[in-house]
């Protein structure tokens, strides 16, 4: 039996300003199509023989987004493992292997990052089936992509001799991201694949290789599961022991050291959506060589990536630029320097700004809020509460709130009162008053919230009751 392990915990900083820490690229709507990258990853497993329900590994902050997107495509996972903090692919995969491995169960793990684009699903599934035979024979299989050019943003795999009675090759060596001259030589030789970062191996074999080559990972992950908290399908490893893991990939921790590495060729229109350069490659160009998405008007502009999410972006005479607009940030960068976007994200974090972590629209398990305006002592938000959902019972020390219902019907708990508030009606929540907002109806509830007070930070919240398990103060 094959158990897909979907690694959905990345922050996607190279796709800023669209991808943010709390709403990363793999969960973004309308980035590459009607579904998210995470949902496309799930869908390409449909029809693959002997595939069980997936295990998803993601960040604690993303758990409700992940659950909602699983439900949208009709997938019920075996488990969702919530990392206290991302530690790269080796610890994430170790958690999944330890969770699934037992005396009765030793599945094949198909490890899939949730941020890839694969255009030929049939070819992908055929490659997986070729990998199954090798994995069942005790190999650690990596899928290698025939290079389309001298790409410096990917790692490479040098293939060795073919493996008898299989569609695979022994791995001669792994090579980190090369410079352009080296990458050109690799491609010309015909002996190298791009490293896709997708793997297939027996759970017990991966554990054994960790024991030999990266014992600290096995120890930290096993220790964290001894203090895990299980809440339905959610598994929360103990943070203290998990955070002893190094930040390390499967490649570094195991694949570069093992004697059992095999590579299977993947010719399926694969792209790692790791940067805006990948976005450029996977989208069609117009007659001027531009890749355009959203509300864009261009005049005499060529060979540029122009992406608008919330307003008109107009260009005149620009060439070879990337112009990326969201409601709270605009990035302008030469296309030749798109691989450097992460440097800007690091600068934003160092500056103490929130744009690296949050969009203007922030998703919560009950719905979302959009901060429309914020000044010294007031803030205006548009809040959407999904049908049947509610915010926590809470109180604020530093702010009062005015709620105006613009769509739907609200059930408001305010102190000892319980109020029904209809469209075009308002309610006032004094500072220090316990309150809760609920949507008892069948359509989304939308309100305009005006906050006023001496401090308006999101951490001024004391929760007394919460159906989503968020009783900590933050």
Structure overview:
There is one protein chain. The protein has 474 residues and is an alpha/beta fold. 22% of the residues lie in helices and 34% in strands. The strands form 7 sheets. A 6-stranded antiparallel beta sheet has the order 20-21-22-29-24-27, with no helix packed on it. A hairpin with a 2-residue loop joins strand 10 (229-231) and strand 11 (234-236). 39% of the residues are buried.
SSE topology sketch:
Elements: E1 2-7, H1 37-43, E2 55-59, H2 63-72, E3 79-83, H3 89-100, E4 108-113, E5 116-118, H4 121-136, E6 140-145, E7 156-162, E8 168-175, H5 180-189, E9 192-202, H6 203-213, H7 215-226, E10 229-231, E11 234-236, H8 239-242, H9 250-255, E12 261-266, E13 270-272, H10 276-282, E14 291-293, E15 296-299, E16 305-308, E17 313-316, E18 321-325, E19 330-334, H11 341-350, E20 361-364, E21 367-374, E22 378-385, E23 393-395, E24 399-407, E25 410-414, E26 417-421, E27 426-429, E28 435-438, E29 445-453, E30 462-465
Parallel strand pairs: 1-2, 1-4, 2-3, 3-11, 6-12, 14-16, 15-17, 16-18
Antiparallel strand pairs: 4-9, 5-13, 6-9, 7-8, 7-9, 8-12, 10-11, 18-19, 20-21, 21-22, 22-29, 23-30, 24-27, 24-29, 25-26, 25-28
Helix pairs in contact: 3-6, 3-7, 6-7
């Amino acid at each position: 039996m094959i158990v897909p392990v979907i690694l959905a915990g990345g922050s996607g900083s190279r796709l800023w300003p669209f991808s943010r820490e709390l709403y990363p690229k793999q969960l973004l709507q309308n980035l590459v199509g009607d579904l998210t990258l995470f949902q496309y990853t799930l869908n390409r497993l449909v029809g693959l023989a002997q595939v069980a329900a997936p295990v998803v590994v993601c960040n604690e902050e993303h758990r409700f987004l992940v659950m909602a997107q699983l439900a949208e495509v009709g997938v019920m996972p075996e488990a969702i493992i919530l990392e206290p903090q991302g530690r790269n692919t080796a610890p994430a995969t170790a958690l999944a292997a330890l969770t699934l491995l037992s005396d009765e169960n030793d599945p094949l793990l198909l490890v899939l990052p949730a941020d890839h684009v694969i255009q030929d699903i049939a070819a992908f599934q055929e490659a997986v089936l070729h990998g199954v035979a090798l994995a069942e024979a005790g190999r650690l299989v990596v899928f290698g992509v025939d290079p389309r050019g001298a790409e410096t943003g990917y790692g490479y795999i040098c293939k060795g001799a073919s493996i008898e009675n299989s569609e695979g090759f022994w791995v001669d060596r792994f090579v980190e991201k090369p410079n352009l001259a080296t990458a050109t030589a690799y491609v010309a030789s015909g002996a190298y694949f791009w490293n896709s970062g997708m793997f297939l191996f027996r759970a017990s074999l991966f554990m054994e290789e960790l024991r030999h080559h990266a014992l600290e990972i096995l120890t930290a992950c096993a220790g964290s599961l001894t203090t895990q908290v299980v809440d339905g399908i959610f598994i929360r490893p103990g943070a203290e022991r998990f955070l002893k893991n190094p930040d390390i990939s499967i490649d570094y921790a195991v694949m570069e050291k093992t004697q059992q590495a095999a590579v299977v060729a993947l010719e399926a229109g694969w792209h790692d959506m790791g940067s805006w350069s990948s976005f450029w490659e996977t989208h069609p160009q117009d007659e001027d060589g531009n890749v355009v998405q959203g509300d864009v008007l261009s005049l005499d502009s060529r060979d540029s990536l122009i992406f608008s999410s919330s307003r008109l972006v107009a260009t005149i005479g620009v060439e070879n630029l990337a112009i990326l607009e969201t409601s709270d940030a605009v990035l302008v960068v030469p296309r030749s320097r798109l691989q450097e976007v992460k440097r800007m994200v690091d600068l934003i974090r160092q500056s103490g700004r929130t744009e690296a972590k949050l969009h203007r629209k922030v998703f919560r398990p009950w719905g979302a809020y959009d901060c429309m305006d914020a000044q010294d002592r007031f803030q205006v938000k548009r809040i959407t509460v999904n049908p049947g959902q509610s915010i926590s019972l809470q109180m604020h020390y530093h702010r009062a709130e005015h709620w105006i219902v613009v769509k739907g019907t609200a059930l408001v708990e305010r102190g000892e009162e319980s109020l029904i508030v209809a469209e075009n009606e308002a309610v006032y929540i004094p500072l220090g008053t316990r309150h809760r907002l609920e949507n008892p109806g069948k359509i989304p509830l939308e309100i305009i919230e005006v906050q006023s007070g001496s401090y308006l930070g999101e951490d001024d919240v004391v929760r007394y009751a919460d159906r989503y398990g968020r009783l900590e103060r933050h």
